[in-house]
Write a structure and sequence with these properties.
By secondary structure, this protein is α/β, with parallel strands linked by helices. Helices cover 40% and strands 15% of the residues. Helix 3 runs parallel beside helix 5.
Length: 315
């Protein structure tokens, strides 16, 4: 089993590109490298410049690569199709021109990936993590979302990029019934799955059980951890998902309630190969604590057994 641990700009509070408090993208790259990560995600559309030459130079300066790009937008509205397709083309054109991520024997699909997440619905945002309060899409709206995701995945395939659907707290693919439905409606040859241990736990599911249940579609994984005391408090509040993150519901891996030795046991038994990305959403105004936190998460994962032989070097 060969696993490479990477990270993502959300650890620095980068989720909304319009937020005036975001750190400079070059600082994120420098601190990701300083914490011992060889790669990271591109982050939300428009944060890291969509300029392959500029970004490649900065990545090479720090010995980094980009493991995935991100579509984080309204996947439901048919009127958003042109925007989604434009983002997909631009992101895929850039990530495939950057230093190439390493490959691992047994890896299902080569990186970089395109993580595809639904976002932008107030009612679902305020019901994040609370299945009984979260209204499901009707059949027509669901079909529209499926059509948008399939269009994104088709464009990504044309660039040689594997699209992976990422269930996200506060979006319309969040809970177990929605995950099962989207995997039925979008075939494996069109898109894979990126499960996130933090989002599954936040939304009331067992991360180990979900990884096992979705194994046949699992191409990529995100790791987070949950502070159980903060989580209990936000589940009794009417609060948006990222407001909960600003309160510290996501913590360094090993400080929370998710059983990572058990997850490692599952991944070893199943022979997972490829990438796992560490994330810890936060308010960007507290990004000064990121370097210590992402380094702590990486050390913990190495201590419990996630340290593995290095993959091939990037080009």
């Amino acid at each position: 089993m060969t696993i490479t641990i990477t990270t993502a700009p959300c650890c620095w509070g980068v989720d909304d590109v319009a937020n005036p408090n975001l750190p400079d993208w070059r600082l994120v790259l420098a601190e990701a490298a300083a914490a011992g990560y060889g790669g990271l995600e591109l982050g939300p559309y428009g944060y890291i410049p969509l300029d392959a030459e500029t970004v490649s130079a900065e990545l090479r300066r720090h010995g980094l690569y980009v493991v995935a790009g991100t579509i984080f937008d309204n996947l439901v509205d048919p009127a958003n199709r042109d925007n989604l397709e434009r983002q997909t083309r631009q992101i895929c054109a850039v990530i495939t021109a950057l230093p190439k991520p390493p490959a691992a024997p047994g890896q299902r699909y080569a990186a970089p990936y395109l993580t595809v997440m639904d976002w932008g619905h107030d009612a679902r945002d305020f019901a994040a993590g609370q299945s009984d309060r979260a209204a499901r899409l009707d059949d027509a709206a669901w079909a529209g979302m499926v059509a948008n995701i399939r269009a994104i995945a088709r464009i990504a395939r044309g660039h040689g990029v594997r699209a992976v659907i990422h269930p996200h707290a506060g979006g319309h693919v969040e809970f177990a019934d929605e995950i099962a439905r989207i995997l039925r409606d979008i075939p494996a040859d069109e898109a894979g799955l990126c499960l996130d241990t933090g989002h599954t736990a936040y939304s009331g599911m067992d991360p180990v059980a979900m990884l096992e249940a979705c194994w046949d579609r699992l191409d990529y994984i995100h790791f987070k951890d949950i502070d159980p005391a903060v989580h209990a408090g936000v589940m009794n509040s009417r609060i948006r998902f990222f407001e909960a993150c600003a309160l510290g519901v996501m913590c360094p891996i090993g400080d929370g309630c998710i059983d990572y030795p058990e997850i490692l046991s599952l991944l070893e038994r199943r022979g997972y190969a490829g990438f796992i990305t560490v994330e810890q959403e936060r308010d960007p105004r507290s990004a000064g604590g990121t370097l210590a936190d992402v380094a702590k998460s990486r050390r913990y994962l190495e201590q419990v057994g996630f340290a593995r032989p290095a993959m091939e070097k990037t080009r």
